[in-house]
Batch of 2 targets.
Target 1
Amino acid sequence: MLTVRVIPCLDVRDGRVVKGVRFSGLRDAGSPPERAAAYEAQGADELVLLDVSATPEGRAHQTETTRRVREQLSIPLTVGGGVRTRDDARALLEAGADKVAVNTAAVRTPDLIDRLATEFGCQCTVLALDAARTPAGNWEVVVLSGRQRTGRDAIAWAGEATRRGAGEILLTSWDRDGTRAGYDVDLIAAVAGAVCVPVIASGGAAGPEHLLAALRAGADAVLAASIFHDRDMTVGAVKDYLAERGIQVRR
Amino acid sequence: MSADEVLIVRTGTANLASVCAGLRRAGATPRLTESPNDVAVAERVVLPGVGAFGAAMARLTDKGLDRVLAERIAAGRPTLAVCLGLQLLCDESEETPGVRGLGLVAGCITRFSTAVRVPQLGWNLVAADDRAPLLHNPGYAYFANSYKLDAAPTGWTAAYADHGGRFVAALERGTVLACQFHPELSGPWGLELLRRWLDATQPRRTGGAAC
């Protein structure tokens, strides 16, 4: 049986890991290969590297960062942020990504998902889905790092993306991201129930109880950044907590 | 050619960076090739693979690699097949009906049950007969697949895992090792397996041939 996965996320800007990306001021949190190696040693099951550079010049570091992290890492690596074309994806895979996440570009050109899945396989093609609650109580897709609401239903988009070939959904609650209020478990349950591919929960985790709640809501994996960057808890301690509560983890 | 060298078959768009990095960590010197002649004569060959069964077979056939791979595996020469690489050794796959595989492992590849998440993405417990020369110690391995082989044919020693039912996680016969999981992404356990395969397939060093 598959174990659940605990996935630290490295937000990378101009080649450095940063914290507080979406909210107050950015703080440097170290070099990507160093953080990656430390998390693998703690027992991380996988890593996600999201490039949050504001400029093309900043993003030019992305393939080099991927290459340097890959050399350190003997666990899977997903890379995302600014992937617009098949060539962007190919460059990241050749640099050492095992999976590539697409977000805004896929919302604008859904056919990008079909093209990536056909060429690289659905197990390489991750849909990063950022969702925000609507006043009506549903969720809509947001793009451009949360700056633009699209009006598109998030659950329907998850279904369409998997039919087009997305092999995994990295699901971020934009209402919760950075709030430390816990994941949006209703959103997780809705998406996990609507698709047959694995779902990674993201956005809002501040403690191991939040990770447990997301897994109980149906997530196959849990992603967190600040818990680990701030050294509140190690990945190993989080896995101990989950195992004590009957969740199967790799140790 | 260095004694540490391992030839990796370039199977199109497979992500080879992880395989190369994993082999380097295990102490080998990976080199990429798509030449049938290289594959025929190499001491050790890795057949990686991601993507679809039909597309991968078409590419091997186009390059004339299918026959040399089949010959070296049938002859029991050191070969490591990874992920789709294992499936290519079989007769055929539900993924691309009508396309013949390399036909070295009797069996048809089928899709995972609809009762579980597909693709299987994550860590699963792999266990084999404790007398299996390479796969003897159980551990967690990283899988990324939608299709699988259900049972090992006669002549192969198998390790199994479970995802909506038991499936073949790996096969070994002499120095031929085929893994449905990614040893290069399976942490220290995977690294140990790579090292065991490299040790078992180490060409005998000739006197003074320092490299």
Target 2
Amino acid sequence: MSLLGFCQWLEQTSLSVAIRESSWGFPIIESVHTLGLCLFGMAILMDLRVLGLALTRVPAREISLDLAPWMRAGVVIMMVSGILVFLNTPVEYYNNSVFRIKVILLLLVAVNAWALRRGRRTAIACSVSLALWAAIVLASRLITYSLLGASE
Amino acid sequence: MIAVGSVLALFRWCQNSSLGAAVRGSQWMFPAVEAGHLIALAVFGAAVLIVDLRLWDLGLRQRSVADLARSAQPLLLGSLALLLITGYMLFAADAERYYYNAAFWSKMVFLFFALVFTFTVRQTVIMADETRVGPLWSRLVALVSLALWSGVGIGGKAIGFY
């Protein structure tokens, strides 16, 4: 099955249909995805801490250990709600070029995070992480506008 | 004297200002400013959360609440400034529409109470001697803080759905 075929199949699943037909489903999912950013923001704080730009009185190791469960929860919330947002209209997202860029950026950020876990938290890796997150948030907003533009 | 009509006039003035026109007129500006607003939200939300979680005794227990809050204060104020600046830019782009948007007004009411609460009650409790603040009060303050800021966030998200 091609990727497009897969997205077309996804669009016919009962979950996808349920999200589309519910008037509250999509706004709630999108709100969770947006507010989940706050939990996720702890990862940004961690990057800023390593760069010596924030929370300098707290050792980086203490932050990463103590906040790890919350950051993990943030990742899970963002992934689950993000997949549900995608399931609303999979074929539209498939055809959206900014969405493809966002997926690539997410893969890059995952690789970077994996490298960070394995090695030392270096200033370069944390700067890359911050730049990628900024680009991902920008791409997310652009997806919305390009989808709106396409449907007009 | 402040009449209802003068609020609308103020909104129209914001919309017709060169800043409002600039954000409205460019295809890139609005999403870029929105992205800035969201990144600031992530930092601000995290800066509020780590202190509120600490008030619940969840995470960063080795620091005193006051010590952690002092350390997080520049992040909190910096991201709040960015939120207010980008927020005003988004508002100015389409101010008259927001005047008739119930979600916008609900966000502003929550924002007012969240700001007042954060810089009065919450600030007093987190800077107070921990032995003098009962754990129940700490938790209540954290809960109210999270509830008020969630109201701001949900209201903000709802603006787009109206």
